[in-house]
Amino acid sequence: MKRFLIVLFTVLLVLGLTACEPEEVADYKPVIYLYPTEETEVHVSLDYSGALTVTYPDYGTDGWHVTASPDGTLTDADGRQYSYLFWEGVSETEYDFTDAYCIAGKDTAAFLQEILPALGLSPREYNEFIVYWLPKMQDNPYNLIAFQTRAYTDAAKLHITPTPDTVIRVFMAYKPLDKAVPTADHNLPTAPVRNGFTVVEWGGAEISN
User: Fold this and answer.
1) Coil, strand or helix: which one is 134?
2) d(CA 193, CA 166)
3) In whole angstroms, how far apart are CA 76 and each of 40, 167, 181?
4) CB 91 within 8 A of CB 50
5) 13 burial class (0-12, 13-18, 19+ CB within 10 angstroms)?
6) Has residue 36 got a pLDDT over 60?
7) Three-state DSSP class for residue 39
8) What is the pTM of this model?
9) Which residues pair with 54 in a beta bridge?
10) Residue 53 to residue 70: CA distance in whole angstroms
11) pLDDT tens digits, residue range 125-163?
């Protein structure tokens, strides 16, 4: 009996300590599009306050080195072509839900079709966003959705050479909900204007609590 109590106390202690640890958040499928005005050698690196779990093409030791064409096609040193740079990672970033939308799961597609162009994504980019995220969101009763600014850009800093003229970063954090919650009224933002060498990134994270 004494041994059982000791084991039980140890298990409870471990569980208690684990519960107090910050929860890691997975940043899923951030993809980076590069649109120079002419064929350009581009170096992209990521200063990420977490751990990268997968990159494609391979991130290497100091980031991505590619030749970017105006149509967005990227070519590596071996001649392989890519549509974008892809990465995923885990971090302890706390995302901000003070300016959020509460959207019924069944309305997710319509909501994203409206909001993503206003945030600056092109039809190609927002359709790729929706195809990736819609299956994860549409069957939830509701989703609390907040598009991140400083919380994300501070946690995942991009360094790009040559320096782009326009950078558009769209990162969605969302929480699945069983019931709707009140949120503030919103007006659609004004889409940023793309001038010169343009870099576009989108990604997201599901927050479980």
Assistant:
1) helix
2) 8
3) 12, 22, 47
4) yes
5) exposed
6) yes
7) coil
8) 0.87
9) 88
10) 29
11) 999 999 999 999 999 999 999 999 999 999 999 999 999
